[in-house]
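Section 4.2 – Deliverable D4.2 (structural model, holo form)

The reporting period included a commitment to supply a predicted holo structure for the target in complex with glycine. Inputs used:
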Amino acid sequence: MQKQDIIISQNLEESLAQAINRIPHDKLFVLTDETTQTQCWPVIAGLDSMKHAESIVIGATDENKDIETLMHVWSDLGRRGGTRHSLLVNLGGGMVTDLGGFAASTFKRGIPYLNIPTTLLAMVDAAVGGKTGINFNGLKNEIGVFSPAASVLLDTEFLKTLDYKNLCSGYAEMLKHGLISTEQNWAELITFDLNDVDYRKLQDLVAKSVAIKEHVVEEDPYEQGIRKALNFGHTAGHALESLALVEGRTVLHGYAVAWGMVCELYLSSLREGFPKDKLWQTTSFIKNYYGAFALDCKEYERIYQFMTHDKKNTAGHINLTLLGDIGDIHINQTAERSEIFNMLDFYREVMGC
Ligand code: GLY
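Output (structure tokens):
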């Protein structure tokens, strides 16, 4: 997979001009959703590099990440003169970068695209690494391709309008990157104050976080091996997300990942000897900022079933990434039903629910 050009912007006008000029194109399209159209597009609309841009707007939220919206984007590109040499800029959260990336990668067999993620979650995860796609038949990200953006432009200026919960949600993926990288990185992350955000420091942490993801993706772009490290916390996290969905409880992705990391750190400590002090420090950071997702022991079986149906599994065995220590990654681990139940007991006890 071609390497993405990641631009850590200090000056949005200059960085955007540089990113756009680097990709030869005849026509320029900008994809936003209804939220980023009003909140983020005005930040760049007046810039010289955007003078000839044509805007395509789609509905916000994950429900719109579907084939109809994709067809709308393809149609707009075609109807308004898009060619094989056009450039699509995706300005938004993960839904816009995933769907826009897929639209660009398939329109006329593929045109270049530039991601400008506007949420923390998209900056440190969705917009980087070349996974694109849509939901289909009720399944998340069921249809898509690995296809990297030509460039990804990161500017934390956009985060100043992001609400606290979405900030915490994105931060969970950064914490995951800390856990799979170095002790220094992890220590910096668990001492950051999410209640009083220092945006300059956050920009620095975002740059480090993206570099960790980039490094992993470079080693294993198609998730055959070490890219599975990025799934840390996600097997239990996705099960909690699925439970929340069927029970009509609203949970942001990063919150589920944070709680999933508490669960998987417990398994890591049990199975791989992950140090107890780091388990407690990480757990108390998560409890402090994310609170707890209340669980009853009657729900254990359902959570276990969700875990056994995760798309990362092979031959019906739960597939987990565990840690022997910070940065000591053990992919392709599994766990028995009794261990999952013990894990959920641990979660409830430490989270006080
Ligand atoms: N979100 C995990 C990955 O990009 O592989």
